[in-house]
């Protein structure tokens, strides 16, 4: 990962997250009905909120997750600015979230991924489950 990117636990404002969504492929997953209201609720209520910022403070990566801090972590959002993809930011966000939730030994990670994102998650060591 580029050494000039800083990952930390941080809540972002709804406005900043909406701007970030325009620079990623994440935005298409959200229904447009009451979009701003629902995004505001999302950014204020997730139990894990991680950001990746460049040296200028620009938001270039986000991971949101829900966890019980004992057994599981459900990753709801993971996105990286298109101009910063393939630099290890997503992988570092996943690792940091897993640690924040309680660590690899104790915490199982769950998510529902877009089919195009499956290879990324497999590279992170996750296994595909079918129902």
TrEMBL record:
Coiled-coil intervals: none
Sorted UniProt keywords: Transferase
SUPFAM superfamilies: Acyl-CoA N-acyltransferases (Nat) (SSF55729)
An MF annotation (GO) of this entry: acyltransferase activity, transferring groups other than amino-acyl groups
Domain N-acetyltransferase, residue spans: 5-131
InterPro entries in UniProt: Acetyltransferase_Butenolide, Acyl_CoA_acyltransferase, GNAT_dom
Domain of life the protein comes from: Bacteria
Protein name according to UniProt: Putative acetyltransferase
Protein species of origin: uncultured bacterium Ad_113_F04_contig1
Lineage of the organism: Bacteria, environmental samples
């Amino acid at each position: 990962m580029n050494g000039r990117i800083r990952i930390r636990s941080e809540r972002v404002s709804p406005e900043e997250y909406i701007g970030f969504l325009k620079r990623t492929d994440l935005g298409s997953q959200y229904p447009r009905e009451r979009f701003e209201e629902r995004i505001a609720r999302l950014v204020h209520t997730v139990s894990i909120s991680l950001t990746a910022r460049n040296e200028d403070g620009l938001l270039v990566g986000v991971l949101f997750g829900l966890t019980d801090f004992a057994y599981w972590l459900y990753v709801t959002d993971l996105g990286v600015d298109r101009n910063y993809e393939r630099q290890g930011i997503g992988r570092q966000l996943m690792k940091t979230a897993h640690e924040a939730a309680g660590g690899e030994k104790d915490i199982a990670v769950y998510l529902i991924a877009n089919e195009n994102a499956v290879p990324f998650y497999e590279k992170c060591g996750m296994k595909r489950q079918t129902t």
